[in-house]
Amino acid sequence: MTPDGGSDPLEGLGRFRTEIEDIDRRLVALLADRVALGKKTAEMKRAAGLPILDPQREAEVIRRAVTAARERDLPPERIREIFWHIVGLSRTVQESGA
Amino acid sequence: MIIITRPDITDAELDHIRERIEAVGLHTHLSRGEKRTIIGCIGDESLLQELPLRSIPGVENVLAVLKPYKLASREFSVNRSIVRVGASAAIGGQELVVIAGPCSVENRGMLRETADAVRGSGARILRGGAFKPRSSPYSFQGLGREALALLADVRAEYGLPVVTEVLDTRDVDLVAEHADMLQVGARNMQNYALLSELGRVQRPVLLKRGLSATISELLMAAEYIMAHGNRQVVLCERGIRTFERATRNTLDVSAIPVLQRETHLPVIVDPSHAGGDAALVAPLAFAAIAAGADGLIVEVHPSPEDALSDGDQSLDIPAFDALMQRLPAFAAAAGRALTLDGTTALAGAAVA
Lengths: 98, 352
Description:
Number of strands of chain B: 14
Helix content of chain A: over 70%
Number of domains of chain A: 1
CATH architecture of chain A: Up-down Bundle
Largest sheet of chain B: 8 strands, parallel, barrel
Structural class of chain B: alpha/beta
CATH topology of the largest domain in chain B: TIM Barrel
Shape of chain A: elongated
Radius of gyration of chain A: 19 Å
Order of helices and strands of chain A: HHH
Largest interface: A-B, 15 and 14 residues
Number of helices of chain B: 10
Strand content of chain A: under 5%
Largest sheet of chain A: none
Strand order of the largest sheet of chain B: 7-8-9-10-11-12-13-14
Oligomer: heterodimer
Structural class of chain A: mainly alpha
Number of helices of chain A: 3
CATH topology of chain A: Chorismate Mutase Domain, subunit A
């Protein structure tokens, strides 16, 4: 028996995989949205003469992500790593001004 | 710089300390032990001068790490690192790990024969070269992609995790798909482009010491991989170049205890390349275990005289089995264990 009650275990596996693929697509779409917003804030920072790199703000982003991860029982150190990559992605896009 | 925290520190206090450090532009690395936790600070430490680190709640002590390597240094980690390879092997624990197999993968038959034999003798990981960095451009260069596919097949058939060398940054993803552990050869130890790429993939790395590299340079090479995000590094002493010509290289036995003093990373020894002579493999293997090595990597070929590469230093199957039979006594004398029958293989190991 599959967890979702189907009789063919492989059928259940296929369904989960489709769902995972869908989540991955949404993750990438969300990352694209995040990068787009990052670009807009970079333009604003440039206009205001502020530096692009803001370590304090980045540290806050990481801390919030880790707190949320703990609430959802995800391993906080791994979530940290992932969020440093996400922050790094935004930063390179902002710095390149592309 | 490392920050040692109070034993009763809360998650919120830990987060706060790390946020303060990260807010000035450094990165933090956490190492948790049973009694204490260490926060390692990575980056431009002069930025920390303005921070009143000792007065942040939860901080017990702040120490400078004077070594050029940080993530690899012993101080950065509360415990020794254990590097898991595939589903069934772990290097750096109480149990020693022997990696064995042919210098290069020549064909399916010899690879299967070797895998079956070395597994039966107690090896936990199969080695096999696909891409070979030969000193001469006219020597056999390895089967490349074809060998990777053979390694992956034999891994599935015999349940042995596989380690193979990666030579080129362009091949890192391809090799990572086929192998459980990626090897950096001695000649590539300071190929920083390759080390950076290996930092990106989440596969353990076997880093061999360069022929003329100091221990510090070896640790800086490991630091390169770790700084790029991959902390699963195993170091390998394989002999260094000295004035002595009676052996191919000189096994630097003292590197083993020195490395274990300097780093939390596991250290294994390659007695095959160190001596370059099958007759020297056993005595050098004994010496390595006696000096505290976490494992061995040994070249084994079903018919060394027909080997396409490094036949002189390869053990045949009976010689490897004889060597394995003698190792548990040396392991026990060094306060370690080596079981040959697979009973201590990790739970859930997929041994066919």
